[in-house]
Structures are given as structure tokens and as C-alpha cells.
Amino acid sequence: MHGQQPNASSGQSFTEYSLLLGLVVISVIAVLVLAGPSVGNIYSDVVASFNEPAAAEGENPGAIQVVVQDDAGAGIPGVPVFAFNEDGTFLDEQGETDEQGMVSFEEFGDGRYQFRADLQGQKFFSDQLTWPQQWQAEIAIRRQPLTVRVVDAAGNGLSAVYVSAHNEAGDFVEVDGHTGEEGEIRFDLVDGIFQFRADYRTVAYWSDPADSSADSEAVIETGEQGFVARVVDAAGAGIAGVTVEARSSSGGYTGISSKTDAGGEAAFDIPEGEFKFVARYMAHNYSSPVMRLPRDRETTIETGQRPFTVHVVDAAGAPLADVRVHTFSEKENYLQPQGYTDADGALVLQIPDGHFKFRANYRSHEYWSEVVGTPSARSTTINTGEASFTLYVVDSRGAGIADVQVNAFSGSGSYAGSMGKSNADGAIRMELPAGEFVFRAYHRAQSYETGLLTVPGAGSARLTIPDAAITVHVINSAGAGISGVSITVFNEAGNYAGVGGTTNSDGKLLLTLPAGSYTFRANYLQQEIWSGVTAVPDQETVTINVKEQGVTITILDEKGNPVAGSEVAAFSSKGGYSGQKGITDKAGQVNLELPAGSFRFRVKPGRGLHWSDDFQLPAAEIIIHLR
After folding, report:
1. Residue of 525, 531, 562 lying closest to 545 (CA atoms)
2. pLDDT at residue 35 above 60?
3. Model's pTM, two decimal places?
4. Percent of the chain having pLDDT more than 90?
5. Structural domains of the chain ordered from first start
């Protein structure tokens, strides 16, 4: 068998392929040497494109828009956002997200930028973007709900309590609010460790640290429980109706207060802490020692209240009974204790330790004690300066006027009481406290006043009532005077002046009247005839014309025939007999003299009795038909 020879053509082909491959490698190396940097940059840009946001769709709005949103895609408003360049340098540009969680940045040069949102003490960054090719950046922040409960010692929720969130270092993270009716408040928190503080009754209470990424609840225990403050007097008896405030150990207001009951006890619900209890009583503060709760459960506040006596006396030191006395603080703030002095001029009040003043109201004047410090002082005396004072009421000639009523008034016009009536000499003696008074006398339905007088002063004063004579003249229509007419005097308002008389044969009555305005009434033939208003002493005479004149009265029977021999008598419309009557003649007529007024007539024919209707006079003739 013969051996096979190597194929010369196959070996040649392998040699040619090797040479060709060598040439390709040399060419690639040459190309890379010449174009290497450009190719490298292209490669870097391709790689970087995978690590930055895609170019935003739509038209560039001219500003970079940063959206801060939670893991549910909802925008987060009110978040501060800061701008940085690609190497992390702050560009001194910042803004705050709107209601949609968006904030815009304008006037940036071309380049790459990154943005940071600060929320709840933590920092969150966006990816870098290239402006102006890209103009939207997103910062996603994961938030979880966490409920904070504020409870008392029994675990009951406390409503309306202010709660704030803090980081591990204790810094406030701008998250806060008030608990609801169940004592709970919900916060949406970023991942992190938080503590919660409740500010309750001026004391801060903290929760344990909570991990918002794992915990759904945190509890703040205030330790609030019952406490009793008892307010007592010097004898240890409880005082009702006193407002007691719980204050911090330094005296700060907590907003907690209660009022004592009938036994003097004020009940509180108080959280843990150090407090002192202050009773506000009669413009003074009475305090307990500092109480440590919950160790201490009650305290007693002593006011030192005990009996205190106020004496009210006159200038000679004699007691004044039935005088009203009020209690005031030393700054003259009105306080409740008050009453009237007894027959010995004394009033016993229950007064606590402190400084007080007392005021007696007497005869429309106020009289004060000095400032009194209790318990060192147990009584005080108010001297009204009351002394005797005499007022003389006289006429123009200096003669005393008897039986004149006199009242006293303070300088401000307040009624100070009735002083009584003047005696036969016109004098009235009064017991009055020191002060300024005006005295008013009532005489003949008029009033007359003194000027402002200082009592006791000289001890007496004079009130002159000027008077003058006036003549009242009663006449008929012919101007003749009418005698025996009763005259009564009234003031301008129609009040009886207590004086009058009867006209003389000339129809006149002379009266002496004090100065004033009067009207005069003449009672004539059962009629009241009035004058006009007359001023004394301006007028010396007043005339009353009764307008008396003759009137013919005709009596006719049912057929219209005159009735002779009938008695006709005149009466007032009220039924008073005038004293005027007559008998009809054969013409059935009678003539009577009557004044102006309203009359009715009684007719006595041969038999029976007949009354007419009322007639208004003057009238020339009256016809009465008998029925």
C-alpha cells in the first residue's frame, strides 16, 4: 500500500489566511491609535445615558421643574428644595413646593444639576439631569402613618393636647398638631427614629423613641389623676366658692382651675409633675407648698380668715346703727363681704389675712377706714363726723315758717334722707355726717333749695322763701264782684298748695304766697272755674270771671204747651245743687242767673219729678220737654 502525499494547495491557503489576518489586526490598531479619544468619549456618553433621567417629552417650559412626592405618587406641599451643580456645590438657589408638590427653578446655565428636599430633619436627593435637554426632576420620599396617643394614668385618651415630633437628637422636625376626642393624632413620617412630646398643663411629656418604618403607634403617658385642694379659715373650716388654680412649681399658669364646694374642697385631674395650688380669695393669693404628683394626692390652703369688726360712729364717737358697710382691697377693688351695722354701730365680717379697706355709705356720702392689715388688726372704726346742724326756714320778712318739709341731698344730687318738718320758729334740727349737702324745702306746692352747704360748718344755715301778696277777684259777666266764693290754690302742675279762702263782699280774697307759679280755682254754684297760670310776685292781682248771666228756661208738656207753676232747680252735671231755682210763669218760663258750666235741671210740675239732659252754659235759652 502506498503512503498519501500532503496536499500542497491546502497549505498554501492557510499561509495566505494568516497573512491577511495579521494585516487586519495591524489596521485596527492603527485606527484605534489615531481615533481612540473620540471613541472613548462616545462610549462614556452611552454608559452615562443609562444613569440619568430620560429627556422630558413636550416643549421645554423655560424652567427646571422639581416634583417632591410620596411613595403613592402624591405631591408633598411645603417642602424646601435646594439646587446643586454636578459636583455637589450649593448654588444658593432654593424654593418651596406648592400644593401639588412642585417647585420651579429658572435662569440656569447649560449643565448638569441635582436637587435636594429637606423633610422632617432628613435630606432626599434627585438624580442628576442635563439642562436644557432635561427639565424635570423627581424626588421620591417614602412616608408611613404613625398614631400618637396621649393618655392619663388610667389609659384614657386626653383631647386637645399639643403634640410635636422630634428626631433622635431632640430637634423639632416641623410636624405637630392637637389630639382629637380620643386623645390621638396621626402623623405621616419619613423613615427614621422619632420621639414625640406632649405639652400638657405647662409640663412636657415624652414618648419612647419610635421607628416610623416599623412602628405604627407611640404612647405618651401624662400620669394624670385626681387631686384635692382644701381651702380653710383660721379655725380649719372649709370656705365655699373659692377659685383655686394649679400652677407650675415656678408659679406659671397651667390653665387648670376648680372652685371649692360647700366643704371647701376643689377637685382636680392633674398630670404628673410639680405643682402648687393658689386660692384666689378676696383679691389675695393664698398658696400651698409645691406638691409632687402622683406622690401627693391632696393639700390644704390656709387663708387665716376670722371675725373682723367694723365700727361706725359720729363726731362724738357715738355708734350709728343701720349703716351699710362694704369691704375693699387696699387698691379699692370691691369685695363681697358687706352688711349693716347693729344697734351698737358694729358689723362683724369674716376677713382673711391681708390688707383691706372698709367704706360706710351714709346719708349719700362715703366714709372710708384706713388700710387695715390682718390678722394683726381685728377691728377698725369709721368716723362719719356726724354732728348737729340746724336749718331755719324763713319768709321775706325773716319770720320763721312752720310745718315746712325739708329733705337733704348730696352735692351730686343723690337723696340723703328726710330731715322732717320745721317747728313753729321755722327751725329744723338735723344730725348729719361731715360732707356737702343741699337742702330742699317744700312749701305751698313749691320747692326751694339752699346752695351747697358744708356740714357741720358753722352748725346752721338759713333758707329764705320770698313771698308776696296777691288778690284773687271773682266777677260776673257784668264785672261785678261776687262774694262768698270759695277759692283754692294749686301749683302750675295742679297740685294743691294747701291754702285758700272765701271772697269778701267785693268779691276779693287777699293771699300771701311764696314765689312761684300758681293757678286759682273758684267753686261757684257747683261749677269749677279756673284762672290761668299766675306768677308770684310778678302779678299782684288775678281775676276769675265766672261769666254769670241770666238764662231763660222754658218748660213744655208733651203737646208743646207751656207748663206754668213748675219748680225749676239748677244742678251741676255731677249732681251738685247750685242753690238756684224758680217757678215758671204762665208762659212756662223761669229766669235763673247761672255761670258758665255744665248744668242739668230738675223740674217739679204739679205731680212727679223730671230731670233734663245736661246743658252747656252760657246759653240764651233752654227748652225742656216733659215726657
Report:
1. 531
2. no
3. 0.56
4. 81
5. 64-141 (2.60.40.1120), 143-221 (2.60.40.1120), 225-302 (2.60.40.1120), 306-383 (2.60.40.1120), 387-464 (2.60.40.1120), 467-545 (2.60.40.1120), 549-625 (2.60.40.10)
